[in-house]
Each structure stands twice: as structure tokens, then as C-alpha cells.
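Example (one chain per record):
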Amino acid sequence: MNLADARYAVVLAISRMNTLYQKPLFDEWVLVKLARSEGAILAYEGPRADYYQRRFKTDIAPLQVEIEGRKMAVGDFEFAPNAHGAHYDACIRLGPAAYLFCNNIAKSMNEIRDDPLWLKAQEPFVALATAFRDDPLE
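Predicted structure:
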């Protein structure tokens, strides 16, 4: 999958999740390329456009704890159940070095999961992960 198609797939999936959740589920997301020596922001959507990059390493820390020691394949996803505020709640591996990080600035994943609408809203999330498993971001 190319970057334009990946961005479109993410926007569509998040929109579907928001519709099924009947309110914003993830109000912020960032698509990144991570490499040992450097990383690159490929796309961002959210309320912190002016400053999210400065805090990015801090904001993904709870997810890094969840992922640590795990070899994520393309299409695998993970959640940080207790991440609050600016800390990212979820991620999907989109390609060999590409990841999507999603956040709800007002709620943690535990709080999101407390709402019964989460059950339906996670279907587009899983479908997005499957789409990238079938056609990774290159």
C-alpha cells in the first residue's frame, strides 16, 4: 500500500469507529516510520498539531511498555489500557517500519472499553489492521 492509500484507509476507519462509538473514539492519530537511527512523521490528525512532535517519544511510552519484547508482525495491534491524556492508547503495525498510533485525549482504553459501544467500534479497527496485514505500507 502506498502512503496516500494508507492515509485514506486510516481516515475512513477512524470515521467509521467514531460513527459506531457515537462520539470521537480516537481524536488523534499519527502515522510514523520508525527506524533504529531515526523516525519520520508520515501523517498526523488531531488537536496538537503545533506541538505533538516534541512529546512524541514521551507519549508513546505506555505503548512501548506493552510492546516491549513482542515481535509485532504487520497487522498486529496493541493497546495501553491505562494511558491517559496525551499518551497514545493504541497502535497497529502497518508495514516493516510503519506504525499507526491512536489516542483519545480525554479517556484511557479502560474507560473506552467500559462503554458497550466499543464492541462494535472495534470492528473497523480490526479490519484496518487486517487490510495492512494483506497489503503493508511500503
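Caption: The chain has one domain: 3-134.
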